[in-house]
Amino acid sequence: MDINQIKIKVEGVNFYYGSKQALRDIALDIYKNKVTAIIGPSGCGKSTFIRLFNRMNDLIPGARFEGKILIDGNNIYDPKLDVVDLRRSVGMVFQKPNPFPKSIYENVAYGLSINGIRDKGYIADKVDKSLKDAALYSEVKNRLSDNALALSGGQQQRLCIARALAVEPEVLLMDEPASALDPTATLKIEELIHELKKKYTIIIVTHNMQQAARISDYTAFFMMGELIEYDITSKIFTKPSKKITEDYITGRFG
Amino acid sequence: MYFNYLHLREIVYKWIFNILAFASLLFLFGITIILFKEGLPLFKEVSAVKFIFGTSWYPTHEHPEYGILPLILASLLVTAGALFFCIPLGVGSALYIHELAGFKQRAFLKPLIEILAAIPSIVYGFFGMVVVAPFLQRVLNLPVGLTAFTGSLILGVMATPTVCSIAEDALSFVPKSFREASYAVGANRWQTLTKVVLPAAGSGISTGIILGMSRAVGETMTVLMVTGGAAVIPRSIFEPVRPMTSTIAAEMGEAVMGSIHYHALFAIGLILFLFTLVFNIIAEIISRRFRLKLGLGR
What we know:
The complex is a heterodimer.
Chain A: E1 6-17, E2 20-31, E3 35-39, H1 46-50, E4 63-71, E5 74-75, H2 83-89, E6 90-93, H3 104-114, H4 120-133, H5 137-140, H6 153-165, E7 171-175, H7 183-196, E8 201-205, H8 209-215, E9 218-223, E10 226-232, H9 233-238, H10 243-249
Parallel strand pairs in A: 3-8, 3-9, 6-7, 7-8
Antiparallel strand pairs in A: 1-2, 1-4, 4-5, 9-10
Helix pairs in contact in A: 3-4, 3-6, 4-6, 6-7
Chain B: H1 2-39, H2 42-45, H3 48-53, E1 57-58, E2 65-66, H4 69-100, H5 103-115, H6 121-140, H7 148-173, H8 176-184, H9 189-218, H10 221-226, H11 244-251, H12 260-293
Helix pairs in contact in B: 1-12, 4-7, 4-9, 5-7, 6-7, 7-9, 8-9, 9-12, 11-12
């Protein structure tokens, strides 16, 4: 059995904001049911990169994409592709927890209802299941109709994960999901990521190198829009093949 | 020594601003007291029920009658009509400016709409009297052009900048992260707008509508000029009416000071004041809830 099955193939990607080039000739493979961490100094293009996978960058005026990204062999930048379908199969969790000012239940059910699911029983089951998968259910099961903004920051972030899981994505993008959280809440999210990779392919941006080392199987090091090094996490953190990677992970700059 | 001087200066500044801040309260109390003092004596002569629910307003008749129901209904009718125009105009333009207009359009559209608020109400009155009323009379084939409908139309346009400006602010207070979260689970633009953005901005938008309504119900000069001035209970919106504000404006000059008529006009002012007070309190409650809802109160 091939344990390293390729889920996503990135080929010759360039990305521009207006005339400014943000990503330069990126190519890498992302493996199924693995956690891939994207690290690098601020402004290196790591957030831009992760937002390519659900075409979130489409919303930015003046942005331009070149190259190919294949998920299960299908180019997601094919003009015929439906972005809505793509975003359903590639979920995203953002840097700051961003639950809607609705009830906990409605937050998780949102993705289902906008995708046209009307079956109340199915939605209720799915909400429960997503909250369980996001390790939040036991904390909120008695107050599903409370406003989501009454939850703590860490709970809000797990709610956002539940919201993303409810539409049954295959890939989960996480853009510094723990950067606004305290250490305890961060630990919970990290444990959760460990559980989630059994079902999902996870790409996570982090500025915290210990976090990348703890949770990821593969690590990609970006600098100034270029992919400097990409390898198994243990190798990146113990014997990186490039001097500049070593300088970064040992904290000599960044 | 030096410290004492600074300390003293701080106290003096604090008091100056304190007085300035409370000066407007002084006016509020002054106006309220005068309204009650001059309005309440009416009820020694006319019962409150007869005043509010009476259907005839003949203050200068040999046997005068002081029923203001036609005036209240006229105000409500004209205000409701104005809302009919200013809600789609105001909210629609706010949505366009915020959601669809490009950067360049936005840069001039909003200031231009806000200029509508800078036009003096007498100019609206002129415009309504000279252009809109004859036009409506011809097109709708009415006996007179100065009707509740004409007033509604003009007031609706006048209230539009208030509604648009506050609604647009409310839309821009909706954090970008809500939209992103919605797009990220596969929502399209329309779903994001109707299910996330509008509910989040809803209370802000309603505040705008209520403040626009406040403006419409209190507007005097325009309604005096374009609504025709007939103090009868309107049977249709295409009839001349006489709202509360224009009654006061038209009759105050001829009412003998201290007479029942004079007190009756103040009592109308009192009722009007209560109307706008209620609108403003509702707007305040809603906007407070709005702040809590977006988590800004925490």
